[in-house]
Amino acid sequence: MRFDVMPVATEKQIIEVEEAAFNVWHNYYKDIFSKEQIDYMLKKYQSREALKKQIADGYIYYMILADNHLAGYMCVLVQSNYLYLARLYIKAEYRRQGLAKKTISHLESIFKKPELGFSHIKKLRLKVERNNSFAINVYEHLGFKKIRSEDTDIGGGFVCRDYVMEREIS
What we know:
7-stranded mixed sheet; alpha+beta; globular; Aminopeptidase
């Protein structure tokens, strides 16, 4: 399988990520969140308008491609001393094929390039829903460790109950 990661830059790509989010979230989170919470979170965080605002605010979205097909997407935000992996979603038909590992490796290779000026970034950090045992297992397999629990009121009467996980950039 040919693997590639491409920055999201165009309106068409933003629409593709929005559609992928709808597909992934309704497929994957149906056993973790209510349909109402999924719809609320998609509108708040993954709608076309939300994606454009996040990109304007410094979030960097990438499309994950397998054999030139959109297999998923990720989003990162550079913080003062770590890289925050805000999103990493793989479509159901592409899971269990090593794409998360390839994506993390690719991400680290980007941020280790001295010419980009991110040599101070030594860690990757993410949040994962505490009931999301599949993703927790994937992240632990990739070297992430739980550093704390965090409950966040996201509005609409909904709360995200996450683990904050972290790993050194290798």
